[in-house]
UniProtKB/TrEMBL annotation:
Protein name listed in UniProt: ATP-binding protein
Transmembrane segments: none
Domain Histidine kinase/HSP90-like ATPase: 12-118
Keyword list, A-Z: ATP-binding, Kinase, Nucleotide-binding, Serine/threonine-protein kinase, Transferase
Keyword field contains rRNA-binding: no
Pfam families xref list: HATPase_c_2
Taxonomic lineage: Bacteria, Bacillati, Actinomycetota, Actinomycetes, Kitasatosporales
Xref: InterPro entries: Anti-sigma-factor_SerPK (IPR050267), HATPase_C_sf (IPR036890), HATPase_dom (IPR003594)
Gene3D superfamilies: Histidine kinase-like ATPase, C-terminal domain (3.30.565.10)
Top-level taxonomic group: Bacteria
Organism per entry: Streptomyces lanatus
Length: 124
């Protein structure tokens, strides 16, 4: 029988980022830097582009084939994700590039009620 998903409903605040990273580690039962990095980047994107204190839902579970799936849902269907090509001196703009580099695949579901950004990673 598969383990139930980790579901966190929280406000997108800077203090929540390390808390979510720790929850990901605790749920997986072992360090998984890729999953923790993706969780940090997706939550940070909400803070930066949708707004601090936005309500979000973070879901983490294993797929039937053993992959790790992470989903971050926010209520803004109009905030599009754009992978930037930052200059060497830019201090931000690398989040989606990191996600693309470590995830096996990722995407965005848009609905009238908001969006879910998801990614799948190999298991630890």
């Amino acid at each position: 029988m598969s383990r139930p998903a980790l579901v966190l409903e929280l406000l997108a605040l800077p203090k929540a980022v390390p808390e979510v990273r720790q929850a990901v580690r605790d749920y997986l039962g072992t360090p998984c830097p890729e999953a923790q990095l993706c969780a940090s980047e997706l939550l940070t994107n909400v803070i930066a582009h949708v707004g601090e204190a936005t309500p979000v839902t973070v879901r983490l579970f294993r797929t039937p084939d053993g992959r790790i799936r992470l989903e971050v849902t926010d209520p803004d269907p109009h905030a599009w994700l754009i992978a930037r090509r930052p200059d060497a001196d830019d201090e931000s703009g690398r989040g989606l590039l990191l996600l693309d580099a470590v995830a096996r695949r990722w995407g965005v579901w848009l609905t009238p009620a908001g969006k879910t950004v998801w990614c799948e990673l190999s298991g630890p």
